[in-house]
Design goal:
By secondary structure, this protein is an alpha+beta fold. Helices cover about 30% and strands about 30% of the residues. The protein has one domain: 3-Layer(aba) Sandwich (Aminopeptidase), CATH 3.40.630. Helix 3 links the parallel strand 6 and strand 7.
């Protein structure tokens, strides 16, 4: 059998097989701490070269407050995948953009990132912002048919690295 979303591609932190088809659910206000924790875990591994923890500690309180606002926004859908030891993946999107995507490092390579992007695209997302130095995410987006628009902005988090706008190629949005 070839690669397929139904095949186990990895194990979650509790040792349970994870697939791209793992059960996504809509997040609620009580998920804000888990969203923050997942974002912290992914950033400390995947973005250590951008936000070295010894120089730029993860902004726990600010990120938690941001998740509370995102979860309270009726125009934003936040979906998550639960694992035995916490959240494994998140995708937050609105009608036009993929706002946030994260996968716990223990579940990297399982297809959850691709699945999160697909969920956002199915909902109408055609734009996103990604750190210029987030090479792993940029490779994923480019493999999935996204590309830079040439628009840049400064990230709000210290040390304020550059973010690139990406659009789904062939999209007019």
């Amino acid at each position: 059998m070839g690669p397929d979303a139904r095949e186990p591609r990895g194990l979650d932190r509790g040792g349970t097989p994870v697939t791209a088809a793992s059960g996504w659910r809509t997040a609620g206000p009580g998920d804000a701490p888990g969203l923050r924790d997942l974002e912290r875990a992914a950033n400390l591994v995947g973005l250590a070269h951008v936000f070295p923890a010894d120089r730029f500690p993860f902004p726990d309180d600010a990120v938690l407050a941001r998740w509370a606002l995102v979860l309270d926004d009726p125009g934003v859908v936040v979906e998550v995948v639960d694992g035995e030891a916490g959240l494994l993946a998140l995708a937050a999107y609105d009608d036009g953009s993929l706002r946030h995507l994260a996968v716990h490092p223990d579940a990297w390579g399982t297809g959850l990132g691709r699945a999160g992007v697909a969920r956002a695209v199915a909902h109408g997302a055609r734009r996103l912002w990604v750190l210029d130095d987030n090479h792993r995410a940029r490779r994923l987006y480019e493999r999935l048919g996204w590309g830079p628009t040439g628009v840049e902005q400064e990230c709000p988090w210290v040390p304020h690295p550059t973010e690139l706008e990406y659009a789904l190629l062939g999209s007019t949005a």
